[in-house]
């Protein structure tokens, strides 16, 4: 039962009907429509819904009309302690540094209670520790966990499991409770110094140990972890500090002992080392627990080993002259047995390379001799390897590198440094330098660095060129003439003698080839070949070839045209259907009226030479031709113009012309010129006193023309 509804209109006779609507009506809450009693059909949970809003109304059962207005009422769910506290974030994992002060805060835990905190003590929580004492404690109200002991040591215990309980009803009897686990780990601090397990160590190292190799290990223990256990090893004193070195392996934290110098059992049989191991990351809060380092003593015992022979030098350099005879001594290597037995030593050369076969060695004395004749210019240096072994123990072998330098002798004459292309211009002046030459010598500077140049003294004085020794290992070629002509001689040969400054001096003769070339005024070479006059006017070889090809093509066309015309024949009788138009053009032009060699016009001027007019035999003339007398009188005229006009009229009036158009052109040049002929046909036989020297100032294009008309005597010398 929850409550009862009652209306003032209800007389108890059952005429009033009660109706309930709203949240949960009909499902959670039901009403007796006659009495108005409301009951709940199931348990209510305040944590799910705290209140319900319902509407009630009284109506007439017979008419279903409301007797009163609808009324609203709220049903509140009253809380009871039915929810235990819960730790929503548990379990917890947390760390705290070791050696922390007592009361150091570790973690704050919080439990939640779903009950109503405003009604009673159902949601009032109190914290307590169930497990983890006496190391940790918890604040009952705030849930803060703290350390409960001084100087908790990680090395003694590292992990702790603490159980915290939360209880409602303020911890009273009957309250509900919940718990969680807090896993606490102590983190490390550098509170432990390193310690060597022993104060004295002993190490055996054979004297054959290689320099730089690791010969032993040593380690100091540190209870700390991580960077707090890092340490560095050093050799602080002892007679072996200069022979051994120590380094730290960061992974294993071990000290690696290495050899710095070779060991020799015959000289020193043991060494003493003081080795220190110290932490590299110190925490000054715990300096009172130090010092954070430790020292131990290491005794190194050197073991005796049968060693190979030892050479007196780590390497040898020897010298021998080139061209020396086979068997010439080069030098001597020496080795001895370092052991107390002092066994005899034998020598030999390792024939690993071809160079090792060029020398021999005396097995007893170690003297190296030549096995071939050397040429310094071919190979100036040889590298060989000499080995030495004990007679008693041939398996023990030591090696030493030997370098042999081949010394130079003056056995190569000097020669020109390269093939020189010497050019002299036609318009050069006497004493002009046209080329500077130099020489090379395969010998070194001691036997060939100083060169002397001269002309071959066995020949007569050269009238064209001379040579000047510049005293700096070069020489200059100078001209001795004013002009050179390609047409006269285009190539000269100049023998040059070169000697070196070696002992004894050597010399050689070389011949320079000097070409004569045409040059511009600024000295640039234009051409060096004897060319035709047309070529000297500035036409290149390609242009000349193109012109020749054009001429050949034109000649071929003319020959083909003439051949076709000769092979073509006209029929004597032309049919009436053969109607054609033919334009005949005569465009051959002669040399003028005075050019009697081009065409003889005597036939035009001599009436007796004119042939009798002949008419076509296949056509009957309808018009009487001109009389023979009239033709003769016309030919007697001296004036060619009148003669041409007469012939033109005859052609126009002649009925016997072919039945197609014919165009005949007669050109008339006029009377003789008063200035005379300008033809060049007879100019070759005339002599002129005109001075053509001005042609030399017209430039290089008219140079050849100036040479043709100038009075230049050709000069040809040998």
UniProtKB/TrEMBL annotation:
Please name the InterPro entries in this protein's record.
Answer: Cadherin, Cadherin-like_dom, Cadherin-like_sf, Cadherin_CS, Cadherin_Y-type_LIR, Catenin-bd_sf
CDD domains, per the entry: Cadherin_repeat (cd11304)
Which molecular-function annotation in GO is an example for this chain?
Answer: calcium ion binding
- Gene name as annotated: Cdh18
Gene Ontology cellular-component terms for this entry are: adherens junction; catenin complex
Q: Which Gene3D superfamilies match?
A: Cadherins, TCF3-CBD (Catenin binding domain)
Q: Record keywords: Calcium included?
A: yes
Q: What PROSITE patterns is this protein classified in?
A: CADHERIN_1, CADHERIN_2
Q: Which GO terms describe its biological process?
A: adherens junction organization; calcium-dependent cell-cell adhesion via plasma membrane cell adhesion molecules; cell migration; cell morphogenesis; cell-cell adhesion mediated by cadherin; cell-cell junction assembly; homophilic cell adhesion via plasma membrane adhesion molecules
- Report the protein name in the record: CAD18 protein
Is ATP-binding tagged as a keyword?
A: no
């Amino acid at each position: 039962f929850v409550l009862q509804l009652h209306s003032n209109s209800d007389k108890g006779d059952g005429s009033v009907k009660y109706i309930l609507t709203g949240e949960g009506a009909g499902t959670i809450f039901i009403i007796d429509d006659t009495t108005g009693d409301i009951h709940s059909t199931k348990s209510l949970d305040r944590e799910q819904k705290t209140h319900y809003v319902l509407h009630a109304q009284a109506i007439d059962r017979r008419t279903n009309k409301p007797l009163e207005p609808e009324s609203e009422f709220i049903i509140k769910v009253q809380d009871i302690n039915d929810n235990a506290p819960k730790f929503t974030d548990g379990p917890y994992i947390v760390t705290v540094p070791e050696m922390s002060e007592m009361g150091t805060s570790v973690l704050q835990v919080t439990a939640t209670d779903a009950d109503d905190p405003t009604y009673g003590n159902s949601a009032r929580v109190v914290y307590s520790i169930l497990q983890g004492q006496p190391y940790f404690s918890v604040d009952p109200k705030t849930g803060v966990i703290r350390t409960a002991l001084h100087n908790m040591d990680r090395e003694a215990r590292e992990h702790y499991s603490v159980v915290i309980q939360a209880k409602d009803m303020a911890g009273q009897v009957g309250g509900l409770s919940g718990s969680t686990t807090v896993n606490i780990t102590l983190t490390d601090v550098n509170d432990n110094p390193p310690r060597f397990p022993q104060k004295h160590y002993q190490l055996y190292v054979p004297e054959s140990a290689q320099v730089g190799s690791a010969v032993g290990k040593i380690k100091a223990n540190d209870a700390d972890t991580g960077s707090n256990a890092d340490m560095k090893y050093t050799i602080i004193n002892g007679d072996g500090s200069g022979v051994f070195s120590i380094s730290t392996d960061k992974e294993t934290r071990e000290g690696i002992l290495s050899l710095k110098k070779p060991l020799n059992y015959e000289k020193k049989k043991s060494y003493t080392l003081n080795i220190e191991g110290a932490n590299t990351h110190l925490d000054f809060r715990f300096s009172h627990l130090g010092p954070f380092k430790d020292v131990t003593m290491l005794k190194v015992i050197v073991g005796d080993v049968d060693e190979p022979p030892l050479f007196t030098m780590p390497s040898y350099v020897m010298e021998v002259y080139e061209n020396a005879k086979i068997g010439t001594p080069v030098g001597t290597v020496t080795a001895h047995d370092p052991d107390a037995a002092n066994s005899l030593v034998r020598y030999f050369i390792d024939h690993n390379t071809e160079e090792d076969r060029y020398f021999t060695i005396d097995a007893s004395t170690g003297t190296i001799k030549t096995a071939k004749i050397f040429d310094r210019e071919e190979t100036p240096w040889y590298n060989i390897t000499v080995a030495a072994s004990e007679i008693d123990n041939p398996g023990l072998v030591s090696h030493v590198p030997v370098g042999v330098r081949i010394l130079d002798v003056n056995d190569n004459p000097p020669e020109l440094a390269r093939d020189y292309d010497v050019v002299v211009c036609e318009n050069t002046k006497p004493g002009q330098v046209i080329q500077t030459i130099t020489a090379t010598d395969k010998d070194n500077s001691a036997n060939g660095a100083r060169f002397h140049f001269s002309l071959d003294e066995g020949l007569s004085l050269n009238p064209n060129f001379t040579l000047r020794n510049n005293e700096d290992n070069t020489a200059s070629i100078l001209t001795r003439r004013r002009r050179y002509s390609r047409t006269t001689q285009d190539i000269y040969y100049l023998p040059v003698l070169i000697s070196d400054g070696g002992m004894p001096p050597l010399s050689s003769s070389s011949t320079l080839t000097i070409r004569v070339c045409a040059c511009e005024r600024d000295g640039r070479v234009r051409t060096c070949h004897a060319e035709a006059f047309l070529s000297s006017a500035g036409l290149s070889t390609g242009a000349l070839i193109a012109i020749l090809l054009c001429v050949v093509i034109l000649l071929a066309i003319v020959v083909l045209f003439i051949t076709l015309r000769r092979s073509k024949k006209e029929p004597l009788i032309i049919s009436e259907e053969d109607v054609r138009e033919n334009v005949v053009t005569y465009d051959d032009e002669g040399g003028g009226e005075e050019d009697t060699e081009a065409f003889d016009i005597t036939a035009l001027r001599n009436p007796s030479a004119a042939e009798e007019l002949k008419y076509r035999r296949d056509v009957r003339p309808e018009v009487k031709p001109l009389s023979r007398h009239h033709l003769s009188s016309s030919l007697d005229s001296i004036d060619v113009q009148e003669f041409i006009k007469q012939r033109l009229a005859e052609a126009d009036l002649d009925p016997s012309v072919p039945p197609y158009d014919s165009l005949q052109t007669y050109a008339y040049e006029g009377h003789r010129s008063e200035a005379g002929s300008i033809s060049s046909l007879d100019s070759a036989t005339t002599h002129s006193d005109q001075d053509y020297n001005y042609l030399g100032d017209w430039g290089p294009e008219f140079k050849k023309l100036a040479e043709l008309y100038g009075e230049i005597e050709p000069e040809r010398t040998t």
